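Example protein was shown:

_____
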Amino acid sequence: MAAKALSFDVGDYVVYPKHGVGRVIELQKQEIAGMQLELYVLRFEKEKMTLRVPTNKAESVGMRKLSSDKTLREALETLKGKPKVKRTMWSRRAQEYEAKINSGDLVSIAEVVRDLFRADDQPEQSYSERQIFEAAASRLARELAAMEETDEPAALEKLLDILRKAAAIHNKDKVPA
């Protein structure tokens, strides 16, 4: 059996692509179908969910440590960019956004947050746009909170502050002087 490429310790924060930031609460050995398996037991507080991931499958499912500071800075820079609005059908865009969120890639998630953010002076979002925006923003805020050792609401406020400032700059360009 190949050596484990990834190793997480009890207490480590990890990112599981489909669920976001969780914490390793235990390493377990279990016998399943006659095979001895070593499992990471992950706890996702927000969803009140526990997940068991075989240690030898952690890498193939995309489980990873929290992003590096460089990746976090890149994601925060992405939020400051001009939103990219595609003129494709909403159902197709929604699928693309969901795929980016579930990729677990911080910069891709930041792109979704940036593209779906609406400042107070902009038109209302549809219900499904709002749902995807909130899912992406929450995922980004949870990783930011874990990295900066703060809580999710404070991290979310920091993200919204960046987005509001960027929107003010980008919307100023549209208004004739």
In short: The first strand starts at residue 13 and ends at 16. The longest helix spans residues 127-148.
